Amino acid sequence: MDSDLKDNWFKLSLPEQMVNIGNEVKRAVRFDESIEKRRPFIEKAIQYNELSIRDPKNSSCRPELEIGSMMLRDYIGNHYLNCTKEQIRDYYLSFTNLL
Fold first, then answer.
1. Are 54 and 65 within 8 A, CB to CB?
2. What is the pLDDT of residue 2?
């Protein structure tokens, strides 16, 4: 993982991090019909989410962030969690109201 990305990511507030994750999810949803097209955006969202999990200032909400990672991974795969693309997108984009 790029250390510059990690350093810069940790400078963002949690809402800013969540909005960035949400932007990648929003891009993925646009390509929902094609796993090949949506995969890079979801993988980037997962990478960002993992950085948020590792960010020391987010330790109190680590369990929720880990659930977010599960949801994002499920969106790429088998959809065992039965979350719709709209639910996932709206969850992350709801953080824009906090900025």
1. no
2. 66
